[in-house]
TrEMBL record, chain A:
It holds the Pfam family DeoC. Gene3D superfamilies: Aldolase class I. InterPro entries: Aldolase_TIM, DeoC, DeoC/FbaB/LacD_aldolase. One of its GO terms (molecular function) is deoxyribose-phosphate aldolase activity. This is deoxyribose-phosphate aldolase. It comes from Equus asinus (Donkey). One of its GO terms (biological process) is carbohydrate catabolic process.
From TrEMBL, chain B:
This is Aldehyde dehydrogenase family 16 member A1. Pfam families: Aldedh (PF00171). GO terms for molecular function: oxidoreductase activity, acting on the aldehyde or oxo group of donors, NAD or NADP as acceptor. Belongs to the aldehyde dehydrogenase family. Residues 49-487, 549-751 form the Aldehyde dehydrogenase domain. Interacts with SPG21. The gene is ALDH16A1. It comes from the Eukaryota.
Length: 275, 769
């Protein structure tokens, strides 16, 4: 994690001065995807980089220790070893940025990662995820318990009723959405959030992280997100401390694309290990 | 295996730097197409390649590598004649087809483009150096949309455009810096309404030739679209071919002006779209980040041909400059065929032009900021931002070239308009403000052909675009684009040239001196004497008069001999009256024209008597007065319908089409029908909110002066100014006033002096919120 956002005096004029032109932002969202593309080894390197930004996530009602364990191993070995070797990247210790689970599964994840012998952080959604409509007391307690269990990052669902009434909260990282909404990480929304992050940095010198979550499934999507960050915020944001992708199925598509890059063939379902 | 070992270290390195790599688009198909022509391009005429012998040829080069791609024949007059002949032959059939058949053909061409779009976009990008992404994602789809939109127009032509007929053969001249899309904007409406086209493209531009080939290969109707390549100097040759009814030109201001001068007096329609500079007005209430993207769209994305003047409100100057410079740092410049560049190269000429401008700006004290990922080799020029350029410096007066942005601050909206309008150019502009009222007000105030609000450079086939002031007088797209190629049914073919020997240096220079002309047997009461300027009759500056004779050669009376000073006074008076008249509601304008009509009616017998003295039969004279009254009433009624329309395009926003008055018009009336012509020319100009300086019939000016007596009491002073005198001399004087927006001339010699005569007494201005 980056240095904590120590916060500043709340100055609502910053917010009231913000102007967002919706059609213009939509146009920008379209353009930013069309104007950049990476091919060949650039694509492979970018995809491997994307792997290191993934918060490999399982947030299902039926999560148990066994599928959490599988997930943790996949986090440690996200890309088949032989593929990495072919790219001469096997010694780069490529893992996902974190594993993200429900509070009740934090213990399982910590144990599995320890067994795998790695120090990938465990992130937990907390505070009445995904609605956040529970009492402050239980929400705080939820965070405390998750941290006690070994979670080192907490995705907090903010109290949106406070936001909608103009009472803002601060954070080190902002996330597009819970991933459980009908519409999740979209480019136009991300553009507005990234511009806010940049403005905040210019005003205070604090770098706030960004995490799009939900609906990012293909390698192509991942590349577009990386290039969006590069274009709007710059290279200094392209590190796991400041950029994460919350995703569960993205990794397998990236692995497929890497397989294709290395071998020139498209992998069958059974060619790649499941998570 | 060799490839794998080469790959591996690079991937490691890229993994750390996360840099962009090359993303080349294969141009194999473009080369293969050039091979089908043996790398030797001719002209495409009458559905066939035309490759005459003994012609000069110029190389077509890749602007980045300098590699010779093909050689292109330069047309000569015979080739132009052959193309026009083909277009004339094709016209007979094409113009008489039912609209539905033409629609079908245009749709087929749209599909043809769709089938060969990769060839089109790679060829265009390869040869022009523009970013392939822009050609592929914008130009090619827009070309298809244009064909489809105009197919629909052709389909409904019989009902929607009843009473209009196609003009005939259209000559189109496209200069080097313009993409094939500029050609599409013009040929689509021309073909849709039944015209046939000869396009003169600059040498070494294969994309228009490819389009012509695609059209030709549809089989039916060869010869409706002919493309010849040759220098712009062939323009007059094309224009003077018998059968060519109209020439449409787009390009540089100077070239357009030269063409206008060469073609003056040939009775040929000429439409001009000149210059490429655009303007962006950024207020403090703007979404600055989005506005910065607007600047990128306008200049640094290979979308437009020209540079940008950027006006920034002082209160957000620093913030905007920071964001703009940060954004510039992320721009990528490179080979156009690379899928991940923002900007390609435009060849040596464009680069040198930019370089010269920057050097001159620097020498005048301007700050120059350049950034972006730009290859170091020579054909490229980096995105450039110029600030602190003193407004009075010579550099600030000239058109900003690609890829330059010249930023200057403004304090208030009023000042912004003054700065924005303080240039001879009036092409396009955008206003950035989240305050609706402010944005609209600025949009209304800008003297530009098209104004976008919170966007820049959006185009749609259904939305007419054009320019005002020096940027030209033609429209393309939408219904206005169709009328560019139509004429009222039954219009006679154009007259042969009358004025080849006209000398502009001496035309109307001397005023013949006039002396007393014998016994005055004038009528009673005596006709009004003096020039009607600023709402009253006044003595001419020269203090001399000219005699007017009746049909028997007797002296009818004297009228004032007007001169340069009188015209100056009249133009000034007209300008002073203009804001008040524009501000009047259409209803008020209609009422005043109605009152004038009533006054004319009361004067009927006196007017008829005057006309009778000039040899008109009483019955005819009465009819002329009656018709004049009717004309005034009719135009009064039309003042109410100004033609503003609200159109909803596929642009996430409505399009407001405004009709604005031109401003001050100069009108030179013909000798015939002294009253009716005067009224018929005056009424539409006034109805649409213009003010006028008018030279009445030379042989019979008195009825017009008679009408002025009523004008004096009914209309605001300065609205109508009537100057009598030597027609050619007065015409010359009026043409020398650059703030006279149009000059309608009906006179001794078929000249069309500058500023350009406009057939349409008003122009449209678009706002796209």
């Amino acid at each position: 994690m980056a240095a904590h956002n120590l916060g500043t005096e709340l100055d609502l004029s910053w917010i009231s001065k913000v102007q967002v032109n919706h059609p213009a932002v939509l146009r920008r969202a379209q353009q930013v995807q069309a104007r950049r593309t990476v091919k060949k080894e650039w694509q492979a390197a970018w995809l491997l980089k994307a792997v290191t930004f993934i918060d490999l996530t399982t947030l299902s009602g039926d999560d148990t220790s066994s599928n959490v364990q599988r997930l943790c191993y996949k986090a440690k070995y996200p890309i088949r070893e032989d593929l990495l070797k072919a790219l001469n990247m096997h010694d780069k210790d490529i893992t996902t940025a974190a594993v993200c689970v429900y509070p009740a599964r934090v213990c399982d994840a910590v144990r599995a990662l320890k067994a795998a012998g790695c120090n990938i952080p465990v992130a937990s959604v907390a505070t009445g995820f995904p609605a956040g409509q529970t009492h402050l007391k239980t929400r705080l307690e939820e965070i405390r318990l998750a941290v006690e269990d070994g979670a080192s990052e907490i995705d907090v669902v903010i109290n949106r009723s406070l936001v909608l009434t103009g009472q803002w909260e601060g954070s080190d990282f902002i996330k597009t959405s819970t991933g459980k909404e009908t519409v999740n990480a979209t480019f136009p929304v991300a553009i507005v959030m990234l511009r806010a992050i940049r403005d905040f940095f210019w005003k205070t010198g604090n770098k706030i992280g960004f995490k799009p979550a939900g609906g990012i499934r293909s390698a192509k999507d991942a590349l577009a997100w990386l290039s969006l960050i590069k274009e709007e915020l710059g290279d200094e944001w392209l590190k796991p401390e400041l950029f994460r992708i919350g995703a569960s199925t993205l990794l397998s598509d990236i692995e497929r694309q890497i397989y294709h890059h290395v071998t020139g063939r498209y992998a069958a379902y059974h060619d790649l290990p499941m998570s | 295996m060799a490839a794998a070992t080469r790959t591996a270290p690079r991937a490691r390195e890229i993994f750390t730097t996360l840099e962009y790599g090359p993303a080349p688009e294969s141009h194999a198909c473009a080369l293969a197409w050039l091979d089908t022509q043996d790398r030797h391009l001719g002209h495409y005429v009458n559905g066939k390649w035309l490759k005459p012998e003994h012609r000069n040829s110029v190389p077509c080069q890749d602007p980045i590598t300098g590699e010779n791609l093909a050689s292109c024949l330069q047309a000569q007059a015979e080739d132009v004649a052959a193309a026009v002949e083909a277009a004339r032959t094709a016209l007979e059939n094409w113009s008489t087809l039912p609209g539905a058949r033409r629609a079908q053909h245009l749709t087929r061409l749209a599909k043809m483009i769709q089938k060969h779009q990769r060839l089109l976009w790679t060829l265009e990008s390869l040869v022009t150096g523009r970013a392939v992404r822009e050609v592929r994602d914008r130009d090619v789809p827009l070309a298809q949309q244009l064909l489809q939109y105009h197919a629909v127009q052709a389909h409904t032509q019989e009902e929607a455009l009843a009473g209009w007929e196609p003009m005939g053969v259209i000559g189109l001249i496209v200069p080097p810096t313009f993409s094939f899309l500029e050609m599409m904007w013009r040929i689509c409406p021309a073909l849709a309404v039944g015209c046939t086209v000869v396009v003169l493209v600059p040498p070494a531009s294969p994309a228009p030739l490819l389009l012509a080939q695609l059209a030709g290969e549809l089989g039916s109707f060869p010869g409706i679209l002919n493309v010849i390549s040759g220098p712009t100097s062939l323009g007059p040759v094309l224009a003077s071919q018998p059968g060519v009814q109209k020439v449409a030109f787009c390009g540089a201001v100077e070239e357009g002006r030269a063409l206008r001068r060469t073609l003056a007096g040939q009775g040929l329609e000429l439409s001009l779209a000149l210059g490429a500079e655009s303007l962006l007005l950024l207020t403090e209430a703007a979404d600055v980040d989005s506005a910065v993207e607007g600047v990128v769209d306008a200049t640094w994305s290979d979308r437009s041909q020209g540079g940008l003047r950027l006006l920034i409100q002082e209160s957000v100057w620093d913030e905007t400059m920071t964001r703009l410079q940060a954004r510039m740092g992320r721009l990528r410049v490179g080979r156009g065929l690379d899928g991940a560049v923002d900007m390609g190269a435009r060849g040596a000429a464009a680069r040198d032009l930019a370089q010269r401008y920057v050097r001159e700006a620097q020498s005048q004290g301007a700050q120059v900021f350049q950034a972006g990922d730009v290859p170091s080799d020579s054909p490229f020029y980096p995105p450039t931002l110029i600030s602190d350029l003193p407004p009075a410096s010579p550099c600030a007066q000239t058109e900003v070239p690609w890829p330059l942005v010249v930023a200057s601050p403004f304090r208030t909206a009023k000042e912004a308009l003054a700065v924005a309008n303080g240039t001879p150019r009036g092409g396009s502009a955008s206003v950035w403000s989240e305050r609706l009222g402010q944005a609209l007000e600025l949009g209304y105030g800008l003297r530009m052909g098209i104004v976008w609000i919170n966007a820049h450079g959006l185009r749609d086939p259904a939305v007419p675009t054009g320019g005002c002031k020096e940027s030209g007088s033609s429209w393309h797209g939408g219904p206005d684009g169709l009328y560019e190629y139509l004429q009222p049914s039954g219009t006679p073919a154009r007259q042969p040239s009358l004025s080849e020997n006209l000398n502009y240096d001496t035309f109307g220079l001397a005023v013949p001196s006039t002396l007393p002309a014998g016994p005055e047997t004038g009528p009673s009461p005596a006709p009004p004497y003096g020039l009607f300027v600023g709402g009253r009759f006044q003595a001419p500056g020269a203090r001399s008069s000219r005699p007017i004779q009746d049909s028997h050669g007797n002296l009818h009376g004297y009228v004032a001999e007007g001169g340069a000073k009188d015209i100056r006074g009249a133009v000034e008076a007209a300008h002073q009256a203009a804001p008040g008249w524009v501000g009047q509601s259409p209803g008020a304008r209609a009422a005043l024209l109605g009152a004038l009509a009533a006054a004319l009616e009361r004067r009927e017998s006196a007017l008829a008597a005057r006309l009778e003295r000039h040899g008109v039969e009483l019955k005819v004279a009465k009819a002329e007065v009656e018709l004049s009254v009717r004309r005034l009433r009719a135009w009064g009624a039309r003042a109410q319908a100004q033609g503003h329309t609200l159109q909803v395009a596929e642009l996430r926003g409505p399009v407001l089409r405004l009709r604005e008055p031109l401003g001050v018009l100069a009108i030179v009336c013909p000798d015939e029908w002294p009253l009716l012509a005067f009224v018929s020319l005056l009424a539409p100009a006034l109805a649409h909110g213009n003010t006028v300086v008018l030279v009445p019939s030379g042989t019979c000016p008195i009825p017009a002066l008679e009408v002025c007596q009523d004008v004096a009491t009914l209309l605001p002073a300065g609205l109508v100014n009537v100057v009598t005198g030597d027609r050619d001399h007065l015409t010359r004087c009026m043409a020398l006033h650059q703030d006279v927006q149009a000059l309608w001339y009906f006179g001794s010699v078929q000249i069309s002096p500058e500023p350009t005569s406009a057939a349409n007494p008003f122009f449209a201005e678009e706002d796209w919120p």
